[in-house]
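Morning!

This is the sequence you dropped in the shared folder:
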Amino acid sequence: AELTPEVVIANLEFTPNYGYAKQIQMFRGVLEDFNAEELSMFLRFATGIGRLPSNRRFPRGQKLKIRFMPDQLDHLPSAHTCFWVVDVPPYEDATEMGQKLRQAVAAPQPFALS
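The structure's back. Tokens below.
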């Protein structure tokens, strides 16, 4: 089944979910503008997996956390694929958020060895 913004958004959890209402709405709006290929790139960026299972849910009901990180407005969004967390600066502008997220998901993903 083709990825749609609604399916991806249904698998997200925003933290903190207070104080960032504007950014949560902007982030959803950015994903609603993504096409299926961009949504797949976003999932691969965030989880290491470019698609959802056929039931359109992550295993065991797991959610992908979108975490707003204050004081990092000059940073791109960053992903912690082991923990299914995407850190997003609380951009004030939807256009900037869209540009930065697209830039982050399109970048080659480095593999850090620890």
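Headline: Residues 73 and 89 are 5 Å apart (CA to CA).

More detail when I'm at my desk.
O.
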